[in-house]
Structures are given as structure tokens and as C-alpha cells.
Specification:
By secondary structure, the chain is of the alpha/beta class. It has six domains: 103 residues; 155 residues, 3-Layer(aba) Sandwich (Rossmann fold); 35 residues, no CATH class; 255 residues, Aspartate Aminotransferase, domain 2 (3-Layer(aba) Sandwich), CATH 3.40.640.10; 156 residues, Aspartate Aminotransferase, domain 1, CATH 3.90.1150; 102 residues, Ornithine Decarboxylase, Chain A, domain 4, CATH 3.90.100. Helices cover 47% and strands 12% of the residues. The strands form seven sheets. An eight-stranded mixed sheet has the order 6-15-14-13-11-7-8-20, sandwiched between helices. A five-stranded parallel sheet has the order 2-1-3-4-5. The longest helix is centred in the C-terminal third of the chain and has 38 residues. It is globular. The N terminus is likely disordered.
């Protein structure tokens, strides 16, 4: 393959940062191979081509490594010098040492001097690599000082840079909790690209004066730098430019600790809006003060208050006289039969098992110590005002929020295909439920999400009926199981224009990781709430709203079409930002199973919600919460703050690599078609026009545009593959092929799709294994076809046709029966009354639809009404809820399903429905 030109190399390296770490690792490995071939070649013409290829790779790597502390700029000057002198044998040794240091991450633990070429130095790198393999991962060496990199933004010369780097190196002490190295950015743009491509950067020191432009073509920053110009920034004062840079770094990576070193009027600067700086230093402040301040800031994120308290507790000798025989491991260490539990789990889990809330520990139900502090840290990490730990899953977290905010007969707008916990939460709260329909993806037997037009139309219907004051909450799933993500800010802004005090509950069970990536973060509930709160407080917004209102009033405000077809803005004097999010931390970040969190950004929480929230929390939370789950939530938060950016970035990279192979391999394409953006988001909801994030020529360069503009986008880390061309349905493919043959686990299928979810633990090796398995399966289908007789081929063709052409349309929510409705003009129903009405056996009966009995009753004019939730797996949401009228479309869908698991349906009896007499009876108040 022809090597790219220098311009193309720059674009590849920096034009789009999503795959920068893969590019970095692969280029170093390719360089090692090229050098190995070069030093052994005798053919001069081939040697010349290899020298050119090495030159290109070194140029590419120099751009990338300019934003990393190792290898340093001095190291690269040494590498270039060897190359230019033609000392290829020595260069190969140096590059091999460097690559081993990167793989083993030995540069984190000790200084690696690439100018040393003796055998001892090489042996150290080899030993580090071997140790890494033995441990599984270098991070498992818990005794090592955690390593990070300090970004210094300063337009200094190479000589000055080395002086500064050496000054900070000399401050290292064995007793320091952390060790760090220095990387320098010489311009505004370089500072931004550094925090994007270098996840090791945990702190930033902005010093003195620096220009705007980088020497590189940083096309990755186009979206972030929109509206800024070199001339405008060059005319700014040192303080203004530093403050602007600080705000942009915070937007990209809010976890990075920032410090300002100024030579100007430090007192005046300190009195300005410098919210993103931890501290300001005057230029004469000595390095040692900066050093200790930086380490203290890192330590504030590294702390795990409850996990540390639990570890300390486990070391204490205590007498156990409470109702937990397993506490301190006593019931198993003394056992003749249960000792294998200790062999399997280790002793520490038992030493830390207790129900004590004192002695350095804390009470989850009324925290005052380390749990309280851990929850405060979680709020900081996720951008919330308050955060709460939940030890029995997001199903419970959802019910807590609903119970705290919803009173009986309050109206809740909710997407019909949400998680079942929400439907049951509506029953418990006594809410009157107004179901919203998501757009269907009939070709793949799945739903997307609820269009904003549908939400606004429903709110306006309540406004016309004079019932808008009863609408309390909008409850939506962001992102869906299949990866469809809302434009959260736009949904909230336009809904608040219609009802300024509407409460939002965003079920982000599958989206906790999104807070730690700059592309994903703006579509999270907490970020959107904080952004809108700041926006509505500004004078600029007041002016924007006044101009919008004047223009809007020239239209016909009394016509619903005006509200539906135009972008809406809320009144800043009336709007209240009231937002809740629930996270299944254990699903996408580090936590033991059932570890979840509730995040709150509610301006009225203290005045109106805190007391009922506490009661709801007490109602649903065990008085004996699992401390191991709580400790894992604490550690998971710390990990997300310290390395979430790196881990999520790697997750995205592995998903993009998987997608890229599936998009481009002919045999894989024949049987497995990856659903792209346009497959899962109709054109009406893609303002950007982006059909796929991937282009074979330009790569992954359209994702940001879609995520910035479109009503819905697809999370690329959820890889949905259409398998209809295999002739095997999703459930059989999951069990018979993936799990039984190759041990690959997935937990989401539809009739003709399977979902592969990457996460922060997914490695490139795992992706390679999956691709290998899919190749084997594809070849198996090839052989099956080649070896089949004509009748057998007809059978395969019929199966393929059934899975690709004969797909039942997904049914919308029909309606609640009039017995469970309050008024005709609005659609909400009393799901609680329907649910408990079915408890009396005389109120219900079973009707079968497989023999036509139920259909016959419907043809005679009977409204057949479900008395239970009916939930097929897949798709895993209720197609019927208590009080809902059974429609022909729902029956057709149920009859077309070829799944064996349908909760709420008993094939031998049929559907549980209400007897007609029960529906005629007046409500029992």
C-alpha cells in the first residue's frame, strides 16, 4: 500500500482524534518492523523505499508524541539524529526499547533514558514487559505511585522547556503519593489538542503568554474553535485568553485540575470569573508551591472515602455480637465444609462484611461521614447538585425518584417502550400515565425514541384541555438499549417553553460512561441541566428570548402548528430547571452488580423535594445495604474521574475498529450488516444529513457534526448487526452460535438483529476474537449453502425471506379503556387502579388468541382489556399494560413473535383480561 504524503499523515494523526491511540500503537509497531527489515536488507532499491516509509512514520509519530511526555521532545531529537546519520542498527535498538517501555508502561515507574543502549537498560524494559504479562495489566501493581502528566501551556523555547521539566523532576520525593512528568503546549490550539489526545494529562498549568495558532493543521478542533479567530484572540489580554482557554479545557475534560500563572495584576485577575482554575500563582511563586498544590488537587479526586473507611475497618480487631455470622469471616473460617468460599473470594471480603454504621463507617440511610463524602464526590464527577448511591439496581433508583416527585393522579408523560421498572413505578405512585410512542424500526423489530414533535403535541393537548397543571413529569430513556440518544438539551428547552416547571427524569442506565467523553457529555442529563441553568441566568439569553418572543408573537400563538413547527424558548423569569438522572453504574463503569446512582439537578430540590425524596429513599432502600457495592461505587467514581476519559476513549476506539472491519470485509458484509446512523435514525431527525459516521476515504470524521445537531444519534459503542441473511433468528444465533460454540455473551437481540456492546473493559484482543468468530460463522454459512441440495436451499431462502421481508409492524400504544380514564380529550390512564383491580379473580378471565377465541370476541364488538403487563423478551418492554385495550396490531405482533419468553402470557390459558362486568363497575374510591 502506498504511504501517505506528509499532508495526509498530519490529517491521519490529528484530523480526527477518535482512533489516535490505535494509530499511535500501530505506527510504532510498524516502525519497528520496518527498521528490522532495513538493517537486514541487502537490496539498495528496497532499502531506499523502506527509508522513505520510516521517514513518513517518524513524521507522523513526532506530531502525536509532541503532546505526550514520553517519549520527550529530547528523545525524539535523538531518534531523528540517528535516522539522519543512517545509524539504523542503533535506531532499531532505541525504538525497540521505546516500544517496550510504552507497552510495559515502565515510563510511569522510572525514568527511561533512550540514550542508554547497554544490555542492562534493555533487560530492564524486557523485565517490565514480562512483569506486565504476569500481572495482566500494569495498573494492577497497586504499590506503584500512580502516574500522570502535567500540561504546561507556555510559548517557551526548547531550552526553556527542558529547564522547566527538570525543575519539576527535581521536586519528586519518594514519599509523594503520585509521580508526574511534564508535557508542554506552545499555543492555544496545541493545549486543546493535548487534552484531547493525551489521557495521561490530569493537571494543567497555564503560564504567561502564548499564541493562538498551532504549527499543525488541527482539523479535529474545528467544532470546538467555531466562532473564534486568531486575530480576536491575539488582541485579548493575557488574562482573557487564559480564562477562555481554561473554560474550553473544562468543557472538553472537566476533571482536569487547572492552575494559572500570571505575570500581570494577580489581585485583579483573582477577582474575575475564574471558576475553572483551582488556584492562581504569581509568576514569582516558586516551583515547590506549585508542585504541592498540584499533588493536593490530584489527591482530592483520587480519594475514595468509603472504600478507605471500609479497608481500615477490616483491619480492626473487633468483637462481633450482632446478627451477621459471616462478619469477619467467622462462620466460614471455622467451618469444616464452607472453607472453599474463602479459597474462592479471599479473606478481605469477609473481613469487610458488617452491618456496623459506626467505628469509622457510615449509614446509607442517613449518611454523615464517608458515605456522605463519597456521594458528594460522585456529584462533582457527574456534574450533579446531589448524588445518591443505590445498592439494588436502577430499577429501584427509578422508583425512588418517581415516588419522591409524583403524587396519586399526577400525570406523567412516559415513553411506552421504557424499562419495566418505570411502568411498575407508575403503579406504585398512583400516577395517571400518558404513554408516548417512539418511532418504529419495523425492518429490525425494534423501536427508536420519542420524537420531540410527539412530546410537544401531547403537552399542547393538555394545555388545550386545561390540564397542563396536572402534568408533572416527562420520563424518557437516554440512551436506549439499542443506543439511540436524545438531544437532551433541546428536548428540555422546548418542553420548558410550554410548561416552565416540568420535571425531567432521564433513565440513563446505559449511559453513565457518557459523562467522561467530550462528544457524549453534552447529551447527558446533568450537563444539559447545568448548561441551561447557566444560560437562563445570563443577560445574553434575556436578549435572545426577547427577540424570539417578538418574532414568535407575530405568528399565530393560538395555533398549535405554530408551537409544533418552530423552535421554542422558555421565559427566563418563569423557567425552573428540574432534572433527575438514574445510572446503572455497574453496566458501563466499574461497580459490583446492582450498583447504581441517582443524580439530581433540581432548583427546587431543597424547598420542595428533599423531604419526600428522603422518605422514598427510606422506602426502597434496605436497612442492611451491601457495603461491598457501596465501596465499588466509590472506587468506580474515582476511576471515572482519574481515567474515565482514557477508558471511554478506548471503548469508542475498539467499537469503531469493529465497525470498520464489518463495513469493509466482503464475506462479513454478506451475512452481517452493521446498522449505521441512517438505519436507526430516520432522515427527518437527522438535521446534519449524516448517514454514517464512517467514510472509507476520510475515516471517522462526521460523528461530531451529527452529535452536535441532530435530534437523535446512535452511540457507536453499541454495534447492532442485522443477521437476517443468515436465515437464523436473533435468539437462536445468540444461543446456538455465539454462546454455545464460542462462549460469546450478549443480552439483546431482536427477531433479526443482535447487539454487541463494547465497554470500558473491552480490549482490542476481544474485538479480534469476535471478528474471528464472525468469520468462522460466516464461512459455516457459506459451506452450508454450498453443500445444500436444491430443496434445502429453498428452506434457507424461505428463512432468509421471513427474517428480512416478513416482519410484523411494531404496534403503537392503543389506548386506555374508558373505565380507567378521567376525560376523553386527554389520553392518560389510571394504571394503578387497573393493576389492583386484577387482584380479585372474579374481575378477570383468560382468553386465547392462538385459537381465534379472543379475535372472535373483538369482532363481536367487545373491548378486550389487558389485566396484566405482557412483556415479550425480546424486545423486553410491555406491549400491553393493565387497563390497555387490545388492538388487532398488538395481536398480530404477538402472533408473529417467535420468542419463547413472554412475561404475563400463559400459552395454555391465554391473555389475562378484564371481565366485562368488572369494566362496567364504578371506581371504588
Amino acid at each position: 500500500m502506498q504511504e501517505p504524503t506528509h499532508t495526509e499523515t498530519t490529517y491521519t494523526a490529528l484530523g480526527f482524534y477518535h482512533k489516535i491511540s490505535h494509530l499511535r500503537a500501530d505506527t510504532w509497531n510498524a516502525l519497528t518492523r520496518d527498521l528490522g527489515q532495513l538493517v537486514r536488507l541487502k537490496d539498495e532499491s528496497r532499502a531506499k523505499n523502506l527509508v522513505k516509509a520510516i521517514d513518513v512514520k517518524l513524521t507522523r509519530l513526532e506530531i502525536i508524541e509532541d503532546y505526550h511526555a514520553f517519549p520527550s521532545k529530547e528523545d525524539f531529537r535523538h531518534i531523528w539524529a540517528l535516522f539522519e546519520r543512517g545509524e539504523y542498527v542503533l535506531l532499531e535498538k532505541v525504538v525497540k526499547r521505546l516500544v517496550r517501555a510504552l507497552i510495559s508502561e515502565s515510563y510511569r515507574r522510572r525514568h527511561v533514558d533512550l540514550s542508554e543502549t547497554d544490555a542492562d537498560a534493555e533487560d530492564l524494559e524486557t523485565l517490565d514487559a514480562l512483569n506486565q504479562l504476569r500481572r495482566g495489566h500494569p495498573a494492577s501493581n497497586s504499590s506503584a505511585q500512580p502516574y500522570f502528566e502535567l500540561l504546561i501551556v507556555d510559548n517557551c523555547s526548547p531550552q526553556e522547556e527542558e529547564v522547566v521539566r527538570e525543575a519539576f523532576h527535581n521536586l519528586r520525593r519518594p514519599e509523594d503519593k503520585f509521580v508526574y512528568d511534564v508535557v508542554t503546549a506552545r499555543s492555544f490550539e496545541d493545549a486543546l489538542i493535548a487534552v484531547l489526545v493525551n489521557p495521561n494529562i490530569q493537571a494543567c498549568l497555564i503560564r504567561f503568554d502564548f499564541p493562538f495558532k498551532s504549527k499543525y493543521n488541527l482539523s479535529a478542533l474545528r467544532g470546538y474553535l467555531e466562532g473564534l479567530s486568531e486575530q480576536a484572540l491575539d488582541s485579548q489580554s493575557e488574562a482573557d485568553r487564559s480564562i477562555l482557554l481554561s473554560s474550553m479545557i473544562h468543557e472538553l475534560r472537566p476533571e482536569v485540575d487547572q492552575f494559572l500563572v500570571t505575570s500581570g495584576d494577580v489581585e485583579s485577575t483573582a477577582s474575575r470569573d475564574i471558576r475553572y482554575f483551582n488556584r492562581i500563582f504569581y509568576r514569582e511563586t516558586d516551583y515547590i508551591e506549585q508542585h504541592h498544590t498540584i499533588l493536593r488537587a490530584i489527591d482530592s479526586r483520587f480519594r475514595t472515602p468509603f472504600f478507605d473507611a471500609l479497608r481500615e475497618y477490616s483491619k480492626k480487631p473487633t468483637g462481633v455480637f450482632h446478627a451477621m455470622p459471616i462478619s469477619r469471616g467467622k462462620s466460614v473460617t471455622r467451618s469444616h465444609w464452607a472453607g472453599h468460599m474463602i479459597d474462592f473470594y479471599g479473606i478481605n471480603i469477609f473481613l469487610a462484611e458488617t452491618s456496623a454504621t459506626s467505628g469509622g463507617l457510615d449509614s446509607l440511610l442517613q449518611p454523615y461521614g464517608p458515605i456522605k463524602k463519597a456521594q458528594e464526590y460522585a456529584a462533582r464527577a457527574f456534574g450533579a447538585r446531589q448524588s445518591f448511591f443505590v445498592t439494588n439496581g436502577t430499577s429501584t433508583a427509578n422508583k425512588i425518584v418517581v415516588q419522591a416527585l409524583i403524587k396519586p393522579k399526577d400525570i406523567v408523560l412516559i415513553d411506552r417502550d421504557c424499562h419495566k421498572s418505570h411502568h411498575y413505578g407508575m403503579v406504585l405512585a398512583g400516577a395517571h400515565v400518558s404513554y408516548l410512542d417512539s418511532y418504529p424500526l419495523n425492518d429490525y423489530s425494534m423501536y427508536g425514541a420519542v420524537p420531540l414533535h410527539e412530546i410537544k403535541r401531547t403537552l399542547l393537548a393538555y394545555q388545550r384541555a386545561g390540564q397542563l397543571h396536572k402534568v408533572k413529569m416527562l420520563l424518557l430513556t437516554n440512551c436506549t438499549f439499542d443506543g439511540v440518544v436524545y438531544n437532551v438539551r433541546r428536548v428540555m428547552e422546548e418542553c420548558l417553553a410550554i410548561k416552565p416547571d416540568l420535571v425531567f427524569l432521564w433513565d440513563e442506565a446505559w449511559f453513565a460512561f457518557a459523562s467522561f467523553n467530550p462528544t457524549y457529555r453534552p447529551r447527558t442529563a446533568m450537563h444539559a441541566a447545568r448548561t441551561l441553568r447557566d444560560r437562563y441566568r445570563s443577560e445574553e439569553y434575556r436578549q435572545e428570548y426577547a427577540a424570539w418572543k417578538a418574532e414568535f408573537d407575530q405568528l399565530d400563538p393560538d395555533d398549535d402548528a405554530t408551537w409544533l413547527e418552530h423552535r421554542l424558548l422558555p421565559d427566563p423569569d418563569r423557567v425552573r430547571v428540574r432534572t433527575y438522572a438514574t445510572h446503572s453504574t455497574h453496566k458501563t463503569l466499574t461497580s459490583l452488580r446492582q450498583g447504581s446512582m441517582i443524580h439530581v439537578y433540581d432548583q427546587d430540590f431543597r424547598q420542595r423535594v428533599e423531604a419526600p425524596f428522603h422518605e422514598a429513599y427510606m422506602t426502597h432502600t434496605s436497612t442492611s445495604p451491601n457495603y461491598q457495592i457501596l465501596a465499588s461505587l466509590d472506587v468506580g467514581r474515582m476511576q471515572a474521574e482519574m481515567e474515565g476519559f482514557e477508558l471511554v476513549h478506548a471503548q469508542v476506539e475498539t467499537a469503531l475498529s469493529l465497525r470498520e472491519q464489518l463495513y469493509s470485509h466482503p464475506l462479513l458484509q454478506k451475512y452481517f450488516r452493521v446498522l449505521k446512523n441512517s438505519d436507526m435514525v430516520p432522515a427527518a431527525y437527522r438535521e446534519s444529513g449524516v448517514e454514517s459516521y464512517y467514510n472509507p476515504v476520510t475515516g471517522w470524521n462526521q460523528m461530531e457534526e451529527a452529535w452536535a445537531r441532530d435530534e437523535f444519534v446512535v452511540d457507536p459503542t453499541r454495534v447492532t448487526i442485522a443477521i437476517g441473511n443468515t436465515g437464523v433468528d436473533g435468539d437462536a444465533f445468540k444461543n446456538e452460535y455465539l454462546m454455545n460454540k464460542y462462549g460469546i455473551q450478549i443480552n439483546k437481540t431482536s427477531r433479526n438483529t443482535v447487539l454487541f456492546m463494547t465497554n470500558i473493559g473491552t480490549s482490542r484482543g476481544a474485538i479480534a476474537y469476535l471478528l474471528d468468530v464472525l468469520m468462522k460463522i460466516a464461512k459455516e454459512f457459506e459451506y452450508r449453502w454450498e453443500d445444500s441440495s436444491r430443496p434445502e436451499r429453498k428452506i434457507i431462502e424461505r428463512r432468509v425471506h421471513s427474517l428480512t421481508q416478513e416482519l410484523p409492524p411494531l404496534p403503537d400504544f392503543s389506548r386506555f379503556h374508558d373505565a380507567f380514564r378521567q376525560r376523553e380529550e386527554t389520553p392518560e390512564g389510571d394504571i394503578r387502579r387497573a393493576y389492583f383491580l386484577s387482584y380479585d379473580e372474579e374481575n378477570t378471565e383468560y382468553l386465547r388468541f392462538d385459537n381465534g377465541e379472543l379475535q372472535a370476541q373483538m369482532r363481536e364488538g367487545r373491548d378486550v382489556v389487558s389485566a396484566s403487563f405482557v412483556i415479550p423478551y425480546p424486545p423486553g418492554f410491555p406491549v400491553l399494560v393493565p387497563g390497555q385495550v387490545v388492538s388487532e396490531e398488538i395481536l398480530a405482533f404477538l402472533q408473529a413473535l417467535d420468542v419463547t419468553e413472554i412475561h404475563g402470557y400463559r400459552p395454555e390459558l391465554g391473555l389475562l383480561v378484564f371481565a366485562e362486568a368488572a369494566l362496567a363497575a364504578p371506581p371504588d374510591d
